[in-house]
Design a protein that fits this description.
- The protein is of the alpha+beta class and 713 residues long.
- It has three domains: 143 residues, Phosphorylase Kinase, domain 1; 261 residues, Transferase(Phosphotransferase), domain 1, CATH 1.10.510.10; 252 residues, Beta-lactamase (3-Layer(aba) Sandwich), CATH 3.40.710.
- The protein has 19 helices and 25 strands.
- Strands 1-2-3-4-8-7 form a six-stranded antiparallel beta sheet, with helices on one face. A five-stranded antiparallel beta sheet has the order 17-16-25-24-23, with helices on both faces. A three-stranded antiparallel beta sheet has the order 9-11-12.
- Strand 23 and strand 24 form a beta hairpin.
- It is globular, with a radius of gyration of 28 Å.
- The N and C termini lie far apart (80 Å).
- The N terminus is likely disordered.
């Protein structure tokens, strides 16, 4: 019997921001989505893309280290869904207008295929829990566009993080916190029995649905999504909720890993404070007592929570079941002691005492217009909770799923993770820049130089050996001789990587280009307000100080000043102006998605990317005076001079100048420079992974020295 679509919604008449029926074009009155809005990144499939002849994609809900999650519409079932696309950072990419994922070559390509199969295998495993109301349901999964997709139920509700915002002091009483923690613990017991870890438990990923169910989202946002390639992939961890073993590729993960994150979430709900990062606790930072923070709970219960939050994995409970049993014992002891004394435990009254039949808390459901009310029936008194907890623990279908028992930490390869995006169903709004880009770039060359294997006397094998020697991972090398306009790159040079400090180059070029065309006055004064942090010379003492755009430009280029960079981005009207300028310059592989030190954007998956060839071509436009007069190009080169700042001088003769930018992240280096030689200028860009930070400058210095020596032969 066929599906009756006589009353079905036409996907063409649905708002791609909320999947509600719209009556007219323009801005949606329900969610504010503007019809015709385009993706913020070339990685994202555009709204109204159809998948599997059934699903229509809407806006992007989240972008994590291993994939992208979209709002979707199931045309057969006529309901909203969330659709996760497999697209791990560093293994594949997508160009604007192209639906198919381009997989990188070599080992990266093999890692991509291995991860793709695990992505589908994990979806198949999680689908077994579709009837469990505490785990997000997997509805379908399939391959398409050179990648794979998982279709999940779309959870309309509110996260615990949002719920805490409506609480006095950002905390809740013990009995209410338990109504959220215990169902999650039950769900983890089931998935751990199937060999799956969550690896990203936090208040952001626990939802209260419109039907008052507690639901765990975002399975698989982990540092070790694929056990066989975990040494080459990493994602941003949630500070305070990630245990110490997730900070290292050699960390042994197991049930105790999720236990730590769940205990950290419990701590946050009770105290309103996020625990210190485990890596800081490793260095001696203290975890404050819950009692000292005014939390009303038995001392025995605090001991259980603190053991689950032990920094060392072997000191925690070795299964969620064990953690639950100890919680129940502590609650029973605390309840008996309280009844005997007739007063609150530890003689400390909570600032927001629990009451039977507590008033309703009104909160707004994400992605919906009606208010979501958390009623008193979800928040019961402590005695009832203890009874329910005991019943839950001893009535779990252990015979069906098996109780997880990890006596000692096991190699992470024995536990796989389900692959779902960071913040997969959280709203992800990126303000678009509508300011037009400067025109009049007649001097920009339209022809792209061909990659060749020979430039004068340069022996590329020597340069690549330097990179191999100082880098355990993949590396990219791009070189361009600006006298002959010949260029060389290895096979990785067209791959986009995290840009780091190389973002200063497109910012500088855009500022100078705007000045050259009369759209920006370099002598305009800018007041320093917010500080970006990170590297640079501007500090709190400079707040309120006024500097010219020229001074900010020089601070950014000479001292890698992040505050100066962000002020220049603001003056340009946003990142869109820079991206459009780079595009107009006919340069590919450079995309800026967030301001520097914008941690919130980073958590949502936004990152700045560049390819070595893209950055190299930008520098060649300066070195060859293709986009401005020689005077302005020489000025650009001069403010990139960082010889003394970086210690590069020891590698080069006194008469050789290298103007260069460097950006060093953990285990990653990216350097670019213009080298003056007796035979002309040479642009060199090197980017690599798994490099000792202390060796990064030395690595690029050795490459630069080898280029000079070979060019002067």
């Amino acid at each position: 019997m066929g599906l009756d679509n006589s009353n079905a919604f036409d996907a063409n008449n649905l708002c791609m921001g909320c999947m509600q029926q719209r009556s007219e074009s323009g801005q949606c009155p329900m969610c504010g989505w503007v019809e015709g809005s385009q993706p913020d990144s070339p990685l994202y499939l555009p709204p109204q893309t159809e998948l599997n002849n059934r699903y229509v994609l809407g806006r992007v809900l989240g972008h994590g280290g291993f994939g992208i999650t979209y709002l979707g519409w199931d045309q057969e079932l006529q309901l909203k869904v969330a659709i996760k696309e497999y697209l791990p950072d560093g293994l594949g990419t997508r160009a604007f207008g192209d639906r198919t994922v381009s997989v990188f070559s070599g080992q990266n390509g093999q890692d991509y295929e291995n991860g793709l199969e695990k992505f589908l295998a994990e979806a198949r495993t999680l689908a077994r829990f579709q009837s469990n109301s505490n785990i997000v349901s997997i509805m379908n999964f399939f391959k398409e566009n050179g990648t794979a997709y998982i279709v999940m139920e779309y959870v309309e509700g509110i996260s615990l993080s949002q719920h805490l915002q409506y609480k006095k002091d950002g905390r809740m009483p013990l009995d209410e916190a338990l109504t959220y923690i215990m169902p999650v613990a039950d769900a983890l017991s089931l998935v751990h029995a199937e060999g799956i870890l969550h690896r990203d438990i936090s208040p952001d990923n626990i939802y209260i649905t419109k039907n008052y169910h507690v639901k765990l989202l975002d399975f698989g946002a982990s540092r070790k999504v694929m056990s066989d390639v975990d040494k080459s992939l990493s994602v941003l961890l949630k500070p305070g909720y990630a245990p110490i073993e997730q900070y290292s590729s050699r960390g042994v993960q197991g049930s105790w890993t999720d236990e730590y994150s769940l205990a950290a979430t419990f701590y946050k709900l009770l105290s309103g404070k996020t625990p210190p990062e485990s890596i800081d606790r490793m260095q001696g930072m203290e975890l404050e007592s819950l009692v000292s923070l005014g939390v009303d709970l038995p001392s025995s219960l605090e001991q259980v929570v603190f053991r689950a939050l032990a920094v060392q994995p072997q000191e925690r409970y070795q299964s969620i079941e064990e953690f639950k049993v100890e919680l129940t014992k502590a609650l029973s002891i605390g309840s008996s002691a309280s009844q005997a004394s007739g007063q609150s435990n530890n003689g400390v009254s909570h600032k927001e005492p629990s009451k039977s039949g507590a008033p309703k808390t009104v909160i707004q459901a994400e992605g919906s217009s009606p208010n979501l009310e958390v009623p008193g029936r979800l928040i019961s008194n402590k005695k009832a909770i203890i009874a329910v907890v005991v019943i839950l623990i001893f009535s779990l279908p252990a015979a069906v799923y098996g109780i997880v028992s990890f006596n000692k930490p096991k190699p992470s390869g024995q536990v796989i993770s389900a692959n779902q995006s960071n913040n997969s169903q959280s709203n992800n709004n990126q303000v678009k820049n509508t300011q037009p880009v400067a025109s009049g770039l007649e001097k920009v060359p339209n022809n792209k130089p061909q990659i060749i294997e020979e430039i004068n006397n340069i022996d590329f094998a020597v340069l690549e050996n330097i990179l191999r020697q100082d880098s355990d991972g993949s590396y990219s090398l791009y070189i361009r001789d600006n006298t002959t306009e010949k260029e060389y790159s290895n096979s990785h040079a067209v791959i986009q990587k995290v840009a780091g400090g190389l973002v200063y180059i497109p910012i500088m070029i855009t500022v100078l280009n705007e000045s050259y065309h009369g759209d920006l006055n370099l002598d305009k004064l800018i007041t320093i307000q917010a500080l970006a942090g990170g590297t640079g010379k501007l500090t709190q003492q400079d707040r309120g100080r006024r500097l010219t755009i020229r001074e900010l430009l020089e601070l950014m280029m000479q001292y890698s000043d992040n505050t100066a960079a962000n002020l220049l981005i603001d003056e340009l009207g946003g990142l869109g102006r820079i991206n459009e300028t780079i595009k107009t310059l006919n340069v590919e592989g450079v995309v800026l998605n967030r301001k520097l030190m914008d941690q919130e954007a980073a958590k949502r998956g936004f990152e700045n990317y560049c390819s070595p060839r893209g950055i190299g071509y930008l520098l060649s436009l300066i070195a060859e005076t293709k986009i401005m007069t020689a005077k302005e190009c020489e000025y650009a080169i001069s403010i990139m001079e960082k010889r003394d700042h970086t210690g590069m001088a020891k590698y080069l003769p006194d008469n050789i100048m290298i103007s260069h930018q460097t950006g060093i992240l953990t285990g990653i280096f990216n350097d670019a420079g213009i080298i003056n030689t007796s035979k002309g200028r040479v642009v060199v860009v090197a980017m690599g992974e798994k490099v000792d930070q202390n060796k990064a400058i030395d690595t690029f210095g050795k490459v630069a020295k080898a280029v000079v020596e070979q060019m002067q032969k």
